[in-house]
Amino acid sequence: MVTFFTDASQLPATVYDFIVVGAGNAGNVVAARLTEDWKTTVLLIEAGISHEGIDSVAVPGLVLDNLPFSPVMWNYTTVPQAALDNRPIPYAKGRVVGGSSSVNFMEYTRSSNTEYDRWANLTGDAGWSWKNMEQYYLKNSRLVPPQDGHNTTGDVDPSVHGYGPVPLSLVGTPNPLDARMRAATQAPGAEFPFQLDMNGGDMIGFGIVQSTILNGERMHSGKAFLEPAMSRPNLHVLIENTVTRLIQTKTTNGLPSFMKVEFARDALSARSVVTATKEVVLSAGSIGTPQILMLSGIGDREELTAIGVNVTVDNPAVGKHLKDHPIMANYFQVNSNETYDDIFRDRDVSNTFLAQWKQNRTGPMVASPSTGLGFFRLPDNDTIFERFADPSPGEGAGHIELILSNQWTPEVQIPPATGSFLTVHAVVVSPASEGTVRLNSTNPFEFPLLDPQLLSSEFDQHTIIHAARLARQFVSSSPWADFVESRTGIIGDTDDDEADLLAAARQATVTIWHPMCTARMAPKGSTDGAIDPDLLVKGVSGLRVIDGAALPAIPATHPMAAIYLLAERGSDLIKQKWKL
Questions:
Q1: Domain Glucose-methanol-choline oxidoreductase N-terminal: where (predicted)?
Q2: Which residues are annotated as a binding site for FAD?
Q3: Residue 1's pLDDT band (boundaries 50, 70, 90)?
Q4: Coil, helix or strand at residue 247
């Protein structure tokens, strides 16, 4: 049991060396790493609730209970998406200690080596290259045994793993998909390679999921980083309070400083203010961070002036360049009595397995619904590259991800009342589409306008059609012959005609909830980024962004690991500046 403050009146101080906004994937890393120096005082402010005692956070198999709307989510919705037949899309982000690492599907894929080399090229800072970032990967995570203790030889490469606080384990309960997936990659003439370890630097091929699960329980940033640091007297954590804006305090070296942080419990509560003497670190996520910056008068002058915000720093990149991963479910009816469909459509069955989990941490609830995944590139001779530059990091990284789930997972269509199903999710992991986060008003408790522009690029449309065909091709291989019976669902009921597939994709595509890059890094002196490569906000003194908003490009994979690594290096950049 940890002790959080929930009201400003409870705080033992109002002045700290550092104030970190957001106890999520990145913020907990920053708070924990900075307070390793016992002389350094840190206040961590989180809008959400405690993670403790919430089954849907702790139990891997209950992850779908959080999505897309629940008490531990921000419960955003996008504006109507033009390329998705004007459908508004639920936009899930964690509003709980641990942030989205407390509610995501727990896949830890640190991305290809070329991903980080791309960061270095885009920012002009070699410190973001894999040669330097590898140390942070090793420092951040470690491989642990699966919950059922099965032999993992041939399913993972222990030599590429580190020694950090984030545990990574393979699926901890028997699953009928894994053997078939492996067989499909190794059958004579197989066109889909097997990837021994997605965290080895090359991600192409199918492999076994590595999840942030320890002893059958989710291990988010709150448990891995924050809980071990909570006994430190130099760390105070305030939850259930929303930061409403940053207040300019002075000018340092000709630049405005925003060292006061204003916050409140809700829209009707009085505002409170705390002060940082060294830095304020925004780790409020790809939506919260640009919203706070804009509410503080840091952003596009023309847009902010139009809604009544007094602009102090004209930084047009704030809230721009939003990148996200479109996802589309391909459903197949299967001949199996080992799927998890009944768990998700029958609460009595779910409760039985939950009781088993609580008793001895065994059964289906010890694992995420996603059991296997693969990354693939478009063919080098694809004619789409005659008209579009390749948005992927390059060698070792994919344009497409296929994710296998041993049940019908509901995104757009609810599960049928009967039957057993396989879902193969198709994800565009190197999207060309780009959107925005904009203020809806000057009210900090009003959600911003979110427009990820999903599938707006012809490149993304082409890629998701190719992904649907890949999914069909994969489950048509011989190892699936006695398992897969037929296609079904919006995509499955569509033939192979390109126009028909695209029309169906517009109805079946949603988001995998990976918004990134809304306050992205760019070289010093450039105008296309909100922050410098050292994560300092351009035109401002003493203000950093350390979260997914800061990434210069969306990772061609699940972004949790990349954000962890960003936070590890970001913490070191702060320590180096202040000689901590």
A1: 285-299
A2: 96, 243, 513-514, 548
A3: low
A4: strand
Tokens of 479: 């190892």
Active-site residue among 51, 236, 462, 514?
A: 514
- Residues making up the annotated binding site are 96, 243, 513-514, 548
Q: Which are the contacts of 359, defined by CB distance < 8 A and separation ≥ 6?
A: none
Predicted confidence (pLDDT) per residue in 334-385, tens digit: 999 999 999 888 899 999 999 999 999 999 999 988 889 999 999 999 999 9
356-392 residues labelled b (16+ CB within 10 A) or e (exposed): ebeeebebbbbbbbbbbbbbbbbeeeeebeeeeebbb
Q: What count of residues does the chain have?
A: 580
- Pair 569, 127: CB distance under 8 Å: yes
Three-class secondary structure of residue 468 per DSSP: helix
Cβ atoms of 144 and 169 closer than 8 Å: yes
Residues 229-285 have pLDDT tens digits of 999 999 999 999 999 999 999 888 899 999 999 999 999 999 999 999 999 999 999
Task: Provide the whole-model pTM.
Answer: 0.97
The tokens of 283 are what? 């780790």
* Paired residues of 274 in beta bridges: 261
Whether 236 is a known active-site residue: answer: no
| C-alpha to C-alpha distance for 399 and 411, rounded to whole angstroms | 21
Q: Exposed, middle or buried: residue 168 (CB in 10 Å: 0-12, 13-18, 19+)?
A: buried
Beta carbons of 160 and 113 less than 8 angstroms apart: no
Report which residue type is found at 331: Y
State mean pLDDT over 65-85.
95
Query: What is Dmax (Cα atoms) for the chain?
Result: 71
Given a contact cutoff of 8 angstroms between Cβ atoms, the answer to whether 233 and 39 are in contact is no
pLDDT at res. 188: 72
**Per annotation, catalytic residue among 236, 325, 466, 558:** 558
Instruction: State the Cα–Cα distance between residues 8 and 30, nearest whole angstrom.
Output: 22
Half-sphere exposure in the Cβ direction for 13 (13 Å, CA): 17
Q: Write down the residue that tokens 């990091």 correspond to.
A: 393
| 190 pLDDT above the threshold of 80 | no
- For residue 412, is pLDDT > 60? yes
CB of 249 closer than 8 Å to CB of 259: yes
Beta bridge partners of 272: 263
Q: Are 166 and 224 in contact (CB under 8 A)?
A: yes
Beta strands in 24-150 (DSSP E): 42-45, 76-77, 90-91, 141-143
Measured CA distances, 104 to 67, 73, 365, 440, 464 (Å): 9, 11, 15, 27, 22
Q: Which ranges of 283-406 does DSSP label H, i.e. alpha helix?
A: 285-295, 301-306, 341-345, 347-360
Query: Do residues 372 and 209 touch, judged by C-beta distance below 8 A?
Result: yes
- Using pLDDT thresholds of 50, 70 and 90, give the confidence band for residue 175: confident
Distances (CA, A) of 483 to 235, 420, 451, 573: 53, 10, 40, 52
